[in-house]
């Protein structure tokens, strides 16, 4: 689940690492860049498609050269 700032960057990154589009959680086309709410909003929207034990990578970028990422196991 990438930070929803730019669809071209999301698509290019997924393509570069060989990740199929159906594995990338995207909702930028619906809400635009919602800054700090992009990951929670996308997670809320995709929650019904997740199964217990799914592995999620959450990655976000901020102003300047800040970033953060985590790997989680979906527990619900």
Q: Could you walk me through the main structural features you see in this protein, from its secondary elements to its overall organization?
A:
Helices cover 30% and strands 18% of the residues. With 76 residues, it is α+β, with helices and mostly antiparallel strands. The protein has one domain (7-73): 3-Layer(aba) Sandwich (Peroxisomal Thiolase, Chain A, domain 1), CATH 3.40.47. The longest helix has 10 residues, at 7-16. The protein is globular, with a radius of gyration of 12 Å. InterPro entries: ACP_syn_III_C (IPR013747), Thiolase-like (IPR016039).
The CATH architecture can be named as: 3-Layer(aba) Sandwich
CATH class categorisation? Alpha Beta
What's the overall geometry? globular
The first-to-last residue Cα distance is 17 Å
The average pLDDT score comes to 91
Number of helices: 3
* Major sheet: arrangement of strands: 1-2
% residues in beta strands: 15-25%
What CATH calls the topology is Peroxisomal Thiolase, Chain A, domain 1
- Derived structural class: alpha+beta
| Model regions low in confidence, pLDDT < 50 over at least 5 residues | none
Rg computed from alpha carbons, rounded to a whole number of angstroms: 12 Å
Pfam families: ACP_syn_III_C (PF08541)
Protein name: Beta-ketoacyl-[acyl-carrier-protein] synthase III C-terminal domain-containing protein
InterPro entries: ACP_syn_III_C, Thiolase-like
Domain Beta-ketoacyl-[acyl-carrier-protein] synthase III C-terminal: 2-74
SSE layout:
Layout: H1 7-16, H2 28-31, H3 38-46, E1 55-61, E2 67-73
Antiparallel strand pairs: 1-2
């Amino acid at each position: 689940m990438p930070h929803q700032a730019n669809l071209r960057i999301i698509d290019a990154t997924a393509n570069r690492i060989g990740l199929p589009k159906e594995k990338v959680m995207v909702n930028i086309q619906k809400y635009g860049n919602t800054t700090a709410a992009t990951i929670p909003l996308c997670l809320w929207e995709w929650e019904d498609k997740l199964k217990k034990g799914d592995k999620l990578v959450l990655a976000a970028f901020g102003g300047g050269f800040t970033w953060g990422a985590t790997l989680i196991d979906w527990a619900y």
